[in-house]
Amino acid sequence: MKKTNFLAFLSLLTFLLVNIFYVMPPRQTFAQGKTKLIIHYAKDPKTDKDWNLWIWPYGKDGKKYEFTHKDDFGPYAIIEFDENYNKVGFIVRTDEWEKDVAEDRFVDKFINGVAEIWLLPDDPEIYYKKPDKKASNPVKLKEKTKVTVHYYRYDGKYDGWNLWIWPYGKQGKGYYFTGRDNFGLVGTFIIEDTADVDRLGIITRRSEQGNDWAEKEFGDRFITKFKDDGSAEIWLMQGDERIHYSIDTIDLTPKLVSATIDGIKTINIEVNFPFTITEDLKNKIKVKDNNKEYTISEIKIDESTKVENKARRLSIILDEKISLDKAINVEFIGYGTKAATFGQIFSSKEFDELYFYSGDDLGANYTSSKTTFKVWAPTASEAKLVIYSKWNDTQGKEYSMKKEDKGVWSYTLDGDQHGTIYTYKVKIGETWNEAVDPYARSVTVNGDKGVVIDLSKTNPEKWNPKYKPEFKNPVDAIIYELHIRDLSVHPNSGIKNKGKFLGLTETGTKTQNGTITGLDYIKSLGVTHIQLLPIFDFASIDEASTKPQFNWGYDPKNYNAPEGSYSTNPFDPLSRVIELKTLIQTLHDNGLRVIMDVVYNHMYSADASNFNKLVPGYFFRTDSSGKLTNGSGCGNDVASERSMARKFIIDSVTYWAKEYNIDGFRFDLMGLLDIETMNSIRAELDKIDPSIIIIGEGWNLSTALDDNLKANQKNASKMPRIAHFNDTIRDGIKGSVFNHTEPGFVNGSTSSQFKVMSGIVGGIDYSTVITTWGGIEPNQSVVYCEAHDNNTLYDKLKFTNPDASEEEIKAMHKLAGAIVLTSQGIPFLHAGQEFMRTKQGNDNSYNASDEINRLDWDRKDKNMDVVEYYKGLIELRKNHPAFRMPTAEMIKKHLEFLDTPTNVIAYVLKDNANGDKWKNIVVAFNGTNKEQKIKLPSRGRYSIVVNGQKAGITPIKTISGGTLTLPPKTAYVLYEQTTNYALISAVAILIGMLGFVGYHIYSKLNKRL
């Protein structure tokens, strides 16, 4: 070959090789020990939404990634991790957390550490090969949509299972399967009102008598793929969150579904298809850890799964105790191998005897001369303390910790460790997990590492942990629920530290019109307690970003550290602590107590939580199949009934009460927690300060906990001095929060009277008709009609009465407020309710914009008459103990309902029970659109202090005659004057007559003389 030809050939070969590697998709072998993920997304050109990715390695925290590349398919992102992962979760979303597909999705097919996937908009399918690019849903839904659903349960238990289906953004309905096929249950349903939606929501649930929501599998899922005729057909499978649009995508091969360690010698396994019961079953099963194979002494068949000579579940009984700090694997010939997870062993007496730790020194125990670190990790074979120099370091110095009794590991660092950044690493099986100390007092930005702090350095200059505003009985409380950011971000708030703890400490703040805002305004209302939405460290806000972000904060990350985005410097671990203490002290100095909203019932993801990294499986509740439960619909339920989970909750609550001088706790979704835990918290808080109040959402939620153990409304009588939000009076006042157009007492219903009356008496057993949960005292009923959840009262009234004028809406709004603030129990107001707050119809604004969530101070200026009305009602309540009777006995003795027309309620607080200067107090509510008359208890003189225009303690008008005329949609409060004018008149007449008679006698005697 000539030299020139050889050079030409070499150049051509080089060109081809370069271009081949250039044009080929990047599915090359990646460096061992690392992970690369390429995600392509066929962005819908019709939308201008700024889509990005939220990515998390399975079991770890998530992070935002942008689509930084583009090809002919659309934008794509390349994500690289320094560690090897075989499962990575992702969400396509906007910064406002609008999701392209509702459910979390996972990439689990990696080749040499690399996976490449393609996504279509509104399509939950993960394509591992590039699909033909097409519109995800070209079919426009008609007014009615036919849906066929197939449902398979490998446990064979179909009784009670049904579906809840709804057009996206509209009301739902229950649907029951109508038949069986070779797959399982099947039903074809006609879903109405679907003309203007592009997806259908669906939930699989189990109903039983008296409870349609006894259990649900997963949360909301969405049907997004429809056939050309507009119908849809889907396949659902127990334990599989994915919606399948073809039976071909379902794995129906025999396999182990679960293997759980339920006793110190017992493992229960379950398969998806029945196995044949044979004498040599023992020989088909092997149980191993990384050191040895266990000897099986007995196999027990679960008789409840047995059909003829086949079954789905069995128990393996071993000869010796299982090494809980080793990885246990179960092999079942024909069904494969599965890693055993911890199940009921964690709830057993055996486990508690071995590992319950009662000490009060978990976490970083600081002194100026040394700090001792202690972490509970009984299933770890090794543990290390990791010390970092900076918050964003990826490598730290590791110290091997010493294993002590009860599963505790410890290490002591000499010297002053104030400011030291640390984490723990534990070896679980063959895997090392790194976690933040659950007991960490402060954390680095975004809560990714713990920080040792000298708490004495965090006390503000005027910190006085012994001082609290005077307070005795829970029924004396008037609670004002507030979100830190909501208060101050409005341009006309006059507050400098917008969105920060310090924003609530500022005084002298005013709107441009010169009316007060912020702390001064709240103080002027006369409320006693400010309830703050979550102020612990939560995960949904990027603390390192200065971009406006909003979230309610019900996704806890570090329970014992304050949220960094509310501090002026989230990079400084002391700032968040000092500024929160400054806020609490300022509120106390201004006569306001502080209630902390706490979320111990769930975490967004068990796998990503520090608890689960340290002790996998222990802190979270699972159902009978070993699957994590999600009773909140927002994540995974905390197993509060387990002793070390209970201990952490109690330790955390008491820490906040002692260190931050907190005056009360509001438990989010308290019905997911257990009664013993809540009563233990009450007992421990009583040791600190009996005036600390506890309130909670006692909804009856579906979770793997016996009904008689749940801390819900039905069990309220088992939890004295723990109050429950009273949704009976809430819905009675304004209608169901789950149905926008359903009215209540104030806005059009004629059947809500007794619901309202049962709340007026504080939820007690007043009579066979007027009752709520049974056997409670008034200090267990939180009376409200608006909270951060659901529509504001104003928005609800607009939905139910779309043709009403603003003045008519205002009348209904005032009436609702008057019912709340004159009822027995603990009244509760949502910030801004008193000036008719609106969220523009958004009933779940947890991550909506500031424009939706903020307190609109301009609106307050426009509705000062409503503000003054609420202030007057608060003044009335605080001045007259008759509205705050502490016992059910007093209420039954001194509160008497009067005879009234339909949808009119009137009652008298009688017999001078309250010890004030009034003889009888009459309260009356007219929920009708017409003028109504009621008969008063006597014909004496009455002073009106509340009517449709004004409220307070100053008499507006005096009436007599025994009859009260009530204008439409108004509340009246009036008191009978103690001065008996009839008696005075009679005495005057008698004196006059005596004088007349005396004069005549005197005249006659004078003549005789």
UniProtKB/TrEMBL annotation:
Protein name per its UniProtKB record: pullulanase
InterPro entries: Carb-bd-like_fold, CBM41_pullulanase, GH, GH13_cat_dom, Glyco_hydro_13_N, Glyco_hydro_b, Ig-like_fold, Ig_E-set
EC identifiers of the protein: 3.2.1.41
Chain segments annotated as transmembrane: 981-1002
Positions of the Glycosyl hydrolase family 13 catalytic domain: 512-877
GO MF term list: carbohydrate binding; pullulanase activity
PANTHER family, A to Z: GLYCOGEN DEBRANCHING ENZYME
Gene3D superfamilies: 2.60.40.1110, Glycosidases, Golgi alpha-mannosidase II, Immunoglobulins
GO process terms (BP): carbohydrate metabolic process
One Pfam family, short name: CBM_48
Reactions that this protein is recorded to catalyse: Hydrolysis of (1->6)-alpha-D-glucosidic linkages in pullulan, amylopectin and glycogen, and in the alpha- and beta-limit dextrins of amylopectin and glycogen
Cell membrane is among the record's keywords: no
Keyword list, A-Z: Calcium, Glycosidase, Hydrolase, Membrane, Signal, Transmembrane, Transmembrane helix
Lineage: Bacteria, Bacillati, Bacillota, Clostridia, Eubacteriales
Family in the record: Belongs to the glycosyl hydrolase 13 family.
